[in-house]
# Entry
Amino acid sequence: MTSDTKTANGPADYESALTSGPQAVAAFDDHRHGWGQKIQHTLHQTPSLVPLIVLVLSVIVFGLLLGTKFFSPFALTLILQQVQIVGIVAAAQSVVILTAGIDLSVGAIMVLSSVVMGQFTFRYGLPAELAIGAGLICGTLCGYLNGFLVAFVKLPPFIVTLGMWQIVLATNFLYSANETIRSQDIAEHAPLLQFFGSKVNVGGAIFTYGVIFMVVLVLVLAYALRQTAWGRHVYAVGDDPEAAKLSGVQVKKVLISVYMLSGLICAFAGWAMIGRIGSVSPTTGQLANIESITAVVIGGISLFGGRGSVLGTLFGALIVGVFTLGLRLLGADAQWTYLLIGLLIIAAVAVDQWIRKVSV
Amino acid sequence: MIRKLLATGSVLAAMAATPAVAADMSACLITKTDTNPFFVKMKEGATAKAEELGIELKSFAGKVDGDHETQVAAIETCIADGAKGILLTASDTSSIVPAVKQARDKGILVIALDTPLSPVDAADATFATDNFKAGELIGQWAAATLGDQAADAKIAMLDLAISQPTVGVLRDQGFLQGFGIELGDPNKWGDETDPRVVGHDVTQGNEEGGRRAMENLLAQDPMINVVYTINEPAAAGAYEALKGIGRENDVLIVSVDGGCPGVQNVKDGVIGATSQQYPLLMASKGIEAIKAWADTGEKPEPTPGKDFFDTGVALVTDKPVDGVESIDTAEGTDLCWG
# Structure
């Protein structure tokens, strides 16, 4: 019976039915028109566009106000140097926030990792290569703990990393006895620790290895998040973990990998920080968690997960850097910087909400 | 590491054992944090003196600098505990006053260490470094070292925080006065009109902040040749920024604190001169004063001409100049803390 039907309405019929049907690929009809919708749509497609526009505009405005004092290769690359640590940490933060999580322990992990690198070299006399390896492992392990508690114990990321922030910071102070290792001693005995402080000078523009590392890291992450299966899974988990699970994504593994990666990147930030400030100081960089979240939000990554681009985060960090240096050069009270950054944060979330409406 | 753990263990054991020996009289030490080497040294000084005089000492500290709540709770605990005296390094110098008043009303002697309360007479006494004097010494040294060039110096001021806490203002204004620059309102920085001051920026008193602030000021004027810094970590950061543009050898950096890494930096020529303060002395004098109060009911007197008891300050440098008294780094190392 069934076989008869099959023969009667054979495959050829399906083909003809198909050709007679509409040829266009399924698409959402966009009945709205006008500039507002078009801009909204473009921004929806390219989430890093908003911070890029703000960045370019602020550079132009400060350039007009300050002239060559600001618009010189020296000053512009100085901004890069000043945001490199926050930029690297914010890259780690971005990946976590894409999964709809948050990592409040990034700054603490960074400081502890740098302290491990310093103490392993100077307290235990290990070669710098091994000490750096130990520091990187330390950061990754802290991240693993975060990831395990989030993915398997199913605790909210905010709580887990809030606790981890304090634990790691306390460990940092107890372990280091809050002793600073001096820049001169490091330069003499373990210059590798200051590797990221080395510079390349291109016609007045000064790039440190730390800055180059930040840019390369962001590009690699942007590629991995866009083009690899792992990257798409990160977005999927952030958008809707249940749906991701049902479509075969190993949600727990993805979460753990994300927090471990975050920890590892923070450890690299710790290494870069030794390059920047010369010494190993247990008290530096404690506000990096807030500064990194600021860069992520201004950079247009949604705190609700699953949306945004790590390139935007880099622009977000740079916007803060441009404002800070520009306002200082104008002689403005530093409070104005905080006030404007506060406004930017709120504006960025407002824009994010507005863009979201395009898909409603 | 293991030895360190064992040492910590024995200290804990010793602490547990002391109350049995001298339970009749107790005192409290409340510091801003227990991780800053400055306060660690303070605690050491107080603990040693208390042991010597047979006083039971309880130590408290905020979780971070600025943790006012924990300090209030600590004062309340000390009142409940029936302490004879409290040594206090306040995080919030005016908000702590009501809690201090409660303690004093119960007959407890309260001594402010290092940081004067506002108003200063809210405590029975203040044992501190003369921060204005500390700044003045490095100002005088910098001016004398530059000689004729002091007339067209370009000065960067690396301060503590935007909120202009008293300690930062006093050091800053002291330096300017010592250098020979006319002050505006001596209670705040940033209102001078002398063109030699390139600008002020804030460092949070650490290396990262020091570097950033120095870079910002160098972007305003790359020919800066004198750098005042609030403390030695900020100075170390400023030095890195100068090294970044290859000017580390032709800029004079001065600082305040006298911590061991800082004195070492003076020895190495990173910092030209630093003013050293003595936390250990503040704490041990404080314990002695509590003992005297308990025995005779006498309150400590301030140093004549000042509204606090001056625990002294010394200029540490290996390049002494005429007219400014100083000690060399060898002596500074013997007296340093941290």
Notes: The mean pLDDT of chain A is 89.
